[in-house]
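Bumping with the actual sequence this time:
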Amino acid sequence: MLNTRPVKGRGRYILYWMQAAQRAEYNHALELAIQKANELNQPVVLIFGLTDDYPEANFRHYKFMLEGLRETQNALKERDVKLVIRRKSPDSAVIEAAKKASIVIVDAGQLLIQRQWRQAVAQKIDCPLFEVETNLIVPVEQASFKEEFSAGTFRPRITAKLDYYLKKPQQVKLKIKSTACDFDSFDIRNVEKALGKLKIDRSVKMGKFVGGIKNAKKLLAEFIDKKLDRFAEERNDPNADCISNLSPYLHFGQVSPMKIAIEVLKTDSPGKEAFLEELIVRRELSHNFVRFNQRYDDFDALPAWAKRTLNFHARDKREYNYTLREFELAETHDPYWNAAQKEMVLTGKMHGYMRMFWGKKILEWSKNPQQAFKTALYLNNKYELDGRDADGFAGVAWCFGKHDRAWSERPVFGKIRYMNAAGLKRKFDADAYVRKIEEMGKKVSYDT
């Protein structure tokens, strides 16, 4: 509970503030809202606040999100639940709608802006506000009560909770329909038309991914059927095509990590354990990071040893020193780094192993580590569909030593883990990766 208000006796409905979990299934917050509505013999109304100025979001992010929301709106209608979309700041939209609500329920979010929205609503409404975790398998404060040093310290804590939490939420049937309720709602039936009305950054066009649970389910089925067996051995090879590509859908809450885990656990695949390590331990460690470290989007979020070694080597001579614009346009001397940057710009997603190399080289080729951190985060958040996310913040910070240990000391990097092109070539055919991205670029204009 985020406040201590009593249930409002004169309320007309249960309000579910859908924000982080944009889906109609495997949604614990939605099921609790329906359960409470049935207890009080009221309908459930869902509200989504669509703000034009979400930090660092652009056309690419909004289009993917609206594609998913349109599908979710239709799926909720089949469950007799109305999804109302208000074109205003989420906290303002909820505070207004809560005036006639008995209870407000919201899905959990760990980013600072998400917590600020929820705190503002909790203080200003006159009914209870319940926050329900449904985008993690183990609620963040149940997995750990503090910021964890690494996956090694976090793994035993979260693993001990899995038997209790890793269960499909029961889908509850709603007694009183809300689909006939009369609410003004921003029309997203035509996504292109809706996008045209928004005052958003249009500098980044759409990539290759289309939003929505149907596409997420299709990718999941293909991954389990054709890729999971190879995942443990080939996940670090961007030419092997054996990753799930589900991170954009997880970012927008269009698919539940619970559903993914349950479907993977049904298999006897040799890649199962390696994938669940990524989905559960590594992903939820990222949420632990943003929950317990208030500076998660800043160089200061790094562990003391990492900041100390990077600052000590901040004035080391750099063989190359690129500007933000040169990085953004993929104009470095390194064809492998350029290919990774182009993949992200063209598709909206970079292969995970290449993203590690990409971040390490930004550190090596920037004026100082602080500038490098800002550059990596800016580019990641601008072009990645799964950017502006706990995984993105933790992923960038990892390139600078977060959730890692000290290694042998060297110029520029200090004791931060080092990566280079020779390492790529030992793992996979790096030149084939460059050719693949070049072919992709011929089909889709590389235009920032």
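The tokens above came from a reply further down the thread. The mean pLDDT is 96.
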